[in-house]
Amino acid sequence: MRVLGVDPGTIVTGFGVIEDAGGEARLVECGVIRAPAKQPIERRLLLIYEGLLNLVTRHRPDAVAVEEPFVVHAPRNAAMAVGEARAMALLAAAQRGLAISQYPPARVRSTVANYGAGDKEQVRLALTLQLGVDLNAYPLDATDALAVALCHLRHVALDAMMGSERVSARGRR
Fold first, then answer.
1. 91: burial class by Cβ within 10 Å (0-12, 13-18, 19+)?
2. Is the C or the N end of the chain the one with fewer CB within 10 Å?
3. Which residues are catalytically annotated?
4. Whole-model pTM?
């Protein structure tokens, strides 16, 4: 199974592609899509959408996993902007008929780093250990997206072990 993980943002959107290689997760690609802050929001959203569509076309994932926004202290317009970027990921996946799952940040961190309140550096370290690849040169937005993809891969594996197609839990839709 190949998964595209997305950490949405209107200026920097992280992406990570991993695949299951015989029970082990393998990094395929990760990076960021940058949309210049000086561009109007509609232009930035178009750049994000086109970038994600290109990734879906190139990597042919079986599923797309998107991080849900965490906006407790963010201004209302910032929360809406992240939601708009998230919508671009959902649209790119839906246009290609891909399965879409969404995960809250705490679930991603607890699945990948075994600690739901962990910070971005702890998540990056956990990914480095699990994937056997030094990820220090990658932006945190990219490693966050990679964590979302790995979270999905782990939940799919758990579903398979439990003999069901879905675990009835918050974060899977």
1. middle
2. C
3. 7, 67, 141
4. 0.89
